[in-house]
């Protein structure tokens, strides 16, 4: 289980390492998927095999070598599970409460959303009464787009924002969030 760095009543923040996708060797503007997975795996003690200086670049290459589509949620699950004792409980029908329960259990989450036209993936590492604490590999999201010159580490995205971009067809009661809950056997 990951260390909680904030644990006040109603607030939980897991100690999830931050990586930016902007400095990735491969496809820095389109590798949010492997970068988000790398953040979770690194935080769970996975360091990779050293074939690339960054774990996210190793994951990118692993997708190519293993014939995995990094745009497929099911293939991202397979990518996580290539590593010993690592698991990805994936659902296409996630809810905001599912995210909160996973975080409470020490499992960082990865969500897919329409932060960009082509879609984007971020890590949710915590929550409070008004929203979620995220590691966004592309920088900071605003309604008009991204500021990629700032760190996306430990940002606060409102509950409304996550609902709107991750489950737009059921924004008032989000129940279609593509949600990965990442964990490792201890």
**Overall radius of gyration:** 15 Å
Largest sheet: 8 strands, antiparallel
What is the distance, rounded to the nearest whole angstrom, between the alpha carbons of the first and last residues? 8 Å
Beta-strand residue fraction: 25-35%
Structural class: alpha+beta
- The DSSP helix count reads 5
Q: Please, what is the CATH homologous superfamily?
A: Cysteine proteinases
Number of strands: 10
In which range does the helix fraction lie? Answer: 25-40%
Spans of 5+ residues with little confidence (pLDDT < 50)?
none
* CATH fold description: Cathepsin B, Chain A
CATH class descriptor: Alpha Beta
| Helix-strand sequence | EEHHHEHEEEEEEHE
Oligomer: single chain
CATH architecture type = Alpha-Beta Complex
Pfam family, one: Peptidase_C39_2
Protein name: Peptidase C39-like domain-containing protein
Organism: Adonisia turfae CCMR0081
